[in-house]
Amino acid sequence: MRSLLLTLLPIAFLMAGCTSTSYDFMETASISPRFQDKDPQDFGYNSPHRHQVHGIDVSKWNGDIDWLRVRQSGVSFAFIKATEGKDIIDPRFSEYWQNAHAAGLPHAPYHFYYFCSSADEQADWFIANVPKAAMDMPPVIDVEWNHTSKTCTYRPPAAVVRAEMKRFMDRLEAYYGKRPIIYTSVDFHRDNLEGAFQDHYFWVRAVAKHPSEIYPERRWAFWQYTSTGVIPGIKGETDINVFAGNAENWRRWVKAVAEPKQLQAAN
Fold first, then answer.
1. What are the angstrom distances between the C-alpha of 208 and each of 35, 161, 204, 224, 259?
2. Residue 164: partners with Cβ closer than 8 Å, 6 or more residues away
3. Phi and psi at residue 137, in whole multiples of 5°?
4. Which positions are annotated as active-site residues?
5. How confident is the prediction for the chain on average, in pLDDT?
6. Of 182, 220, 167, whose CA–CA distance to 46 is shortest?
7. Contact assessment for residue 252 and residue 67, using Cβ atoms and an 8 Å cutoff
8. Residue 16 or 133, more confident
9. 118: Cα separation from own chain's centroid
10. CA distances to 26, 85, 121 from 192, in Å
11. Residue environment code for 124-149, b if the CB has 16+ CB neighbours within 10 A, otherwise e
12. Residue 128, CB-side half-sphere exposure with 13 Å CA sphere
C-alpha cells in the first residue's frame, strides 16, 4: 500500500495544485507566441501561449535534430517515439533520447498502440527495447484510431480497449515504476475513454479548439496544440505541446516523477 501511495503522490500534487481554471491556462503568463507556427489557430483567450512550459514530440520523420539548440530555444521537454505494436522500433529513438539527455532536456518515450496485437506482446516489445535510463518522465501510451493503417483496421469495443490499455500500462508501471501517461485524440477519447483512467495523466490533442471545449470532463496534464510548429534546431514542421501548470509546478513535477517507485511485479 505504501508503494501505491508513493506512486500516486505526483498525481495528487498536480491535481491539488490546479483549480479547474488554473489547470487549463496561466493567467499571468505572456500571450506572445513562444514559437512560430506555419498554420496558427486562434484559441481566443485560452491561448496555449499563456502557458509557461512548452515541449515537443518527435519521431524519425523529424530527421536530424540539434538538441542543444532545441533546449536553448525554450523547449522544456520532449516526448520521443520508441515503439509501435509488437515489432516496430523507431530507428531514431536511441539517438534521440541519448542526445536529448546530453542536452539536459527532460524526455519520455512513447508507444503507438496497435489493436491487432495483444497488450502483453506490446508490453514485452516495449520493455525489451526501451531502457529505464531512457525516461526522465513517465512513458506514454499513444491510443488513437489509425485511419491510414494498411494492416489493422480493427476497432475493439470500448470495454476491450480499456482492458487492453490497463494491462499494457500495468506491465509498464510494474517494470519502470512510473505510471504511464495517456495520449489520445478527440474521436478515440469520445469512443473509449470518457470517465476512464481518472488516476492517470492525460496528454490530449486539440489543434483547433481549447481542450476544455472538446474534452469538457477531462483534466489534462499536457496539451498538443499544433502539428505545424517551428522549432529552432529542427527542420520542417513540429508538434508542440504545453504543460498544464506553471514553471514552478513543472520543476516540482519532473522531480517527483523522476525516481521510479517500487511496485510489485505484474503477473
1. 17, 26, 12, 10, 35
2. 113, 115, 118, 119, 156
3. -110, 170
4. 57, 144
5. 89
6. 220
7. no
8. 133
9. 22
10. 29, 19, 21
11. ebbbebbeeebbbbbbbbbbbebeee
12. 12
Predicted TM-score (pTM) of this structure: 0.89
Dmax over Cα atoms in the chain, in whole Å? 50
143: cell is 491510443
pLDDT for 21 beyond 70: no
Of the candidate ranges 37-41, 104-108, 152-156, 199-203, the one whose mean pLDDT is the lowest:
152-156
Q: Are 180 and 169 in contact (CB under 8 A)?
A: yes
Residues 6+ apart with CB under 8 A from 264: 3, 174
Taking each helix axis from N to C end, the angle separating 119-129 and 158-176, rounded to the nearest 10 degrees, works out to: 30
- Per-residue confidence band for 123, with pLDDT thresholds at 50, 70 and 90: very high
Contact 181, 140 (CB under 8 A): yes
**Cα-Cα-Cα-Cα dihedral sign, residues 23, 187, 166, 177:** negative
List, as one string, the DSSP characters of 82-113.
EEETTTEE-TTHHHHHHHHHHTT--EEEEEE-
**Exposure string over 7-41, b if 16+ CB within 10 A, otherwise e:** beebbebbeebbeeeebbbbeebeeeebbebeeeb
Q: What is the CA radius of gyration of the chain?
A: 17
